[in-house]
Structure formats: C-alpha cells, structure tokens
Amino acid sequence: MLQEADIGVGISGVEGMQAVMSSDYAIAQFRFLERLLLVHGHWCYRRISMMICYFFYKNLTFGFTLFWYEAYASFSGRPAYNDWYMSCYNVFFTSLPVIALGVFDQDVSARLCLKYPLLYQEGVQNILFSWPRILGWMSNGVLSAIIIFFFTTNSIFNQAFRKDGHAVDYEVLGVAMYSSVVWAVNCQMALSINYFTWIQHFFIWGSIALWYIFLVVYGSLPPTFSTTAYKVLVEACAPSILYWLTTLLVVVSTLLPYFLYRAFQTRFRPMYHDLIQRQRLEGSETEISSQTEVSSELPAQVEIKMQHLKANLRQRNQ
Length: 318
Known about the structure:
By secondary structure, the protein is mostly helical. It has helices at about 20, 30-70, 85-95, 95-105, 110-115, 120-125, 130-155, 170-190, 200-220, 225, 230-235, 240-270, 270-280, 285-290, 295, 300-315, and strands at about 10, 25.
C-alpha cells in the first residue's frame, strides 16, 4: 500500500520498522497525522505550486524581452544582453528568492491551519496548481515582458543620455532592460510572499544588489573580457537620472497588473486562505481564539462550502 500511494506515511509502532523504512514520511503516533496533513501538507502544496508558477513567470519575462528585441531589430542576430548577463540570470539574480519561497513561505499560521481544516481542500481540489492558474502566471510573464521592453525603449531611446550629449546605445539599452527585469521579478516575489523572514528579505534585495555589484566588477575588467559591459554602469547609467527614473517607472508599471488582480480577487473572489487572512486582520487574535463553536469560527463563505461538502458526502454514503 505504501508503494502504490503517491506519498507513503509510515507509523513506527509495535509492528516494527518495515512500514517506516518503506515510507516517504514517518511519524511516531497516529495523532501526528493531523498536523502532518493539515499544516505541513497545506504549506508544502502551496510552496511548491507558487514556486513552479513563479519559475514560469520569471523565465517568460526574461525570455520574451529577448524576443521583442529581436523583432524590433528585424531579427538581425544582435544580442540584447551581454552573454554573462544571460548566464547569471537564473544562477545568481533570481534563484535565491524562489528557494526562500519554497522553504519558508506560510499563508496562515499552524494554529489557523488546524483551526480551519477546510484549507486542506485547496490541495485536494488542486486550486493553486490548476491550468488556469499556470496560464495566468505565464500570461503575466508575457505581459511583463511587453511592458518592460516597450516602456524602456520608448523612455530612453533617442534621448541625450551621456554627459557629452550622445544618445543611448545598445549597451545602455540592454542594461536598462535587464535592470528592469531583475527589479520586476524580485519585487513580484515580494508581492507573492505571505510570510517574510530576514532570510527572504536578504535574498530578494540582496539579489538586486548583487546585480549592480556584478555590473561594477565585471565592467571594470578590460574590454577584451567585459566587451559591451565595460564601465557601462559607472560611466553611463549611474550618473544619469533618466536611467533610474525609467527603472522606477517600468517596475511600477510591470507590477501594477498583478497588484490590481490580487486586490480584485481578495475582495470579490477570495480563496479559502484569503477569507481566513481577512478575518484575522479584521479581528484581533484574542477575538478569533476565543470563539468556541465551529459554526461561528468559520467565515460565511467557508461555512457554506463546508455544508456543500457534507451534503455531497452524505449522498455518496446513501
């Protein structure tokens, strides 16, 4: 039975350790199964779902900026970014925040997971990893790439950028787009996270800072090594207020669609954890914990859903 199950849970007892050795997870007593499923099961499902969807988002955002650039350049083959920019994107500048999401994120506390068992239905009904949700994140990535490319090119192209009055060249355009991508995908992670720790802050903002540190160090190398990145930040981008204003405008515009969608969804089409988070914010912790009856603990929409589930269960048993 353990070998046929998707995830095997073994209980160590008087029967021996054979079940534990064949299982994916082992618990000492049967009563620990409640916390394993309702708390860690819910957290794990949410973390993995968000992590996979975010991978789709950040890679499509980065990849489609290259596609729009090639279309804009009539597919001439001229790269938008330096080769080392593209090599380091998934390794240094966007990898650590998504790892922190997959390890530390919690939408609600362990106490509320046990208090509202209906949260476990998000995994049973596959709400967070359905095709509409995956396609929604992919569409958000494509939209973010469109906003980043066209807003950046229209904001700084053909503008007097350097101190000597020279207009923006392709090296500066590539750095401006890449900076907007790094800022946008990491700030998108900050909007998606529910439970912040110092590690997550360090990974998110440290990844952005690492991009500028890399640009300074790599740009200080001789042109034979740094090629198009030679002192592009120190001499061209950093002294220009247009570069920083463009980055701010593009990042805010990129994050605005997701922010508006989440605001609309939380207010008018909330999921189970949204309802519980709202109740927790509207009422104090003492008011929530002092409720004793199950019917009064649950939000109205969650209670209606529970009644439907109980009715369906009774029909199956008849």
